[in-house]
Amino acid sequence: SLVLMDELGAGTDPAEGAALALSIIEQLRHQGAKVIATTHYGELKIYALETDGVQNASCEFDVETLRPTYKIIVGVPGKSNAFYISQKLGISDEIIKKAEDYLSNDDKNLNKVFSQLEDMKKQLNRRREEIEHLKSSAGEKIKLAQEKSDRIIKKAQQEADLMTERARQSAQKVQDEAYKLSDELKALQKQENRSARQRLQTARDI
Predict the structure, then answer these.
(1) Alpha-carbon gap, residue 119 to 59, rounded angstroms
(2) What are the φ/ψ torsions at residue 132 (nearest 5 degrees)?
(3) From CA 164, how far away is CA 158, in angstroms rounded?
């Protein structure tokens, strides 16, 4: 149900090896197997690009350190980077330049396409990381804004409650004073030892 193949078709003529590898993969797929095949054949990479149900993937390689990063890049075929690595290992530029001249135009175009795909995938990954960062930052800002809003609302409610209590106390004070004045007026009316004019003036003062 699962078939793993490393460099399928290697060790023979490249054209025949690639053709044989494609035929074996097609047969296995026809039988319903899940297939993972590593390859340096451009024909297999093109086959994966053009065939439904088949997908390229590559293992990222740091050409500066000449070490793999062990990061899988799904959807993008890998480059061999043979010329660049050879140059880093000390092979002369003259030899590498001549080797590039030996490449067919199709191979050159294929390498160019693979390079563009790899660059696009890296740009997409960087953009995705930026978007995730922005989403995370926005989420944090929304959370902080909500917390600030909650604090403002809570503080406003507390102030409203305080003012309501002060108003109630003030109303109670006014009411108490009104009752007190009313009592004074009633007491004044009972003061028979004072003249009507004096009681009137005192009532006005009250």
Answers:
(1) 14
(2) -60, -40
(3) 10
